Amino acid sequence: MFTDLQNKLNTFHDLDHETKQSLLKEIHTRASSQKEVFQNYLSKVNYGSLSHRDIFYEAIWNYPQGWEDFFYTELSQLIIKAEGGSKDAIDSLSAMIYLTYLEDMNAEFYTKSVDFLTQKLRSKIPEVRENCAQAITDIHSEYEVELNTEQILELQKLLKDSAFKVRVNTYANLKDVNLIPKKFSISLIDKIRARLFGYSSLLK
What we know:
Elements: H1 6-10, H2 17-33, H3 35-42, H4 53-61, H5 68-83, H6 87-91, H7 97-100, H8 107-119, H9 126-142, H10 149-157, H11 164-176, H12 188-196
């Protein structure tokens, strides 16, 4: 489906802005004209740094209306593969921004995504917990999606997560949306770790 674009896909990050935008528009046009074929094609594309999935996501992300089912399916598949231990999928979790940070989608997409992401806050994979918390707070703040008490409590539990990165990033995310519990404070050891590992800006 995209064989003739392979060279541009391989060198995408080296292309000038105009060429990138032209390529993304071409991908979107082809995908829109053959949605089922595109989704089947993408199902065979690997995750990871050598994959082009993020480029395809960005192409659809630019004009996302009508692609709600696609984005939700991709979001759930990515997380499930990461939870299954796929290192490439775990490394690709940062691409979740293309699957959740979407304007003008229908309300069901946002609420369904938040419900699913909340379930994954208890994942055994720290990177999954961290990225899901980020996605939930982004959807909440950017698209005015209200979180219920249970969802807020699940997020706040991550402030005491076993993984330092999950704790400190959740703290930053919840602070941005004023959801830090009133009596909560970052531990001294986490403040020291944050300074040592370059995360101190997140705690301000």
